Amino acid sequence: MRRVFALLISLGLILFFVNSLSILPEYGNVELSKVSNAYINKSVNGNNEKVKFGESKDLEDGAANVVTSIVVDYRSFDTLGEVTVLFTSALGVGLILHGFKRKTYGRLPNFILRVSVGILLPLILLFGVYVFVHGHLTPGGGFPGGTIIAAGILLLYLSNEEFDLSKTSKFVESYAGSLYIVVGLVGLAIGGVFLINFLPTGVVGDLFSAGIVPIVYILIGFKVGAELSGVIADLYREG
Amino acid sequence: MTIATIFVGILMIISAIYAIEAKKMLDSFISLSLLSLLSVFLFVIMKAPDVAITEASVGAGLTTAVLILALRRIGGDEE
Q1: pTM
Q2: What are the residue boundaries of the structural domains of chain A, listed by start?
Q3: Who among B46, B61, B73 is closest to A151 (CB)?
Q4: Torsion angle, CA of A67/B32/B73/A144, rounded to 10 degrees?
């Protein structure tokens, strides 16, 4: 009986997906709605001018990357919720896998691994920082940047028997998360709206532009990196 | 729809089925990682580089490592 139900549910899902494929517009020829055009031209409040890279000044939102300007400026409250979801899952991992000291295997890790980490680790950390510092100009942002940094920490854990994060990750994570809320509250005090972009936005395409967007993405990068490093540290704990 | 896209799509379906049907847990993790990597290729073709970077770092990179560490933590995949 259960198999029949599973088959029926699968068939329903297949029908749903095939039907929704026929509704989709042809690839590359989509007609943008009014809301999409408002986001792309950065004119939610009404002034309809084309945005030019490196020329347009003092727009609503100075981020050159449209995805970033939606994620960290227009819909920043959603990002706050997303960060909270990640925090909750890291908290769950920490509750299940508790322990006091780092797990060791009693033998030296592979020679090739130990030597190549010395060369690769600075490059990995630098790339992670680049991804979240340039989040408003290039693809990427706080979440992938933090994950790349956590991958570097994982490499450090694999190659060094003594390395342990202890309390550093929790310290960084809690302070970055609190500062995100503080940035939102400063916006509430100055502009009257929680998480409003209260700094001058500058020229589109400059590194120092887009107001609070780079600040928030750097905070998210630190928070996500510390959180995922904490998950890896929890997995290596025992006792 | 080029031939490369269809080829990658078929490979994705095969690796997804293999991830469910594999006898050893480790094989499932590796084919899940392959699925993420192939979807990165599709995201780049569809001009969504933001999603591609996130999928490459989270799906193909860290998730596999965390799954393997968790598998070792619970003591292998013996029944």
Answers
A1: 0.82
A2: 62-238
A3: B61
A4: -20
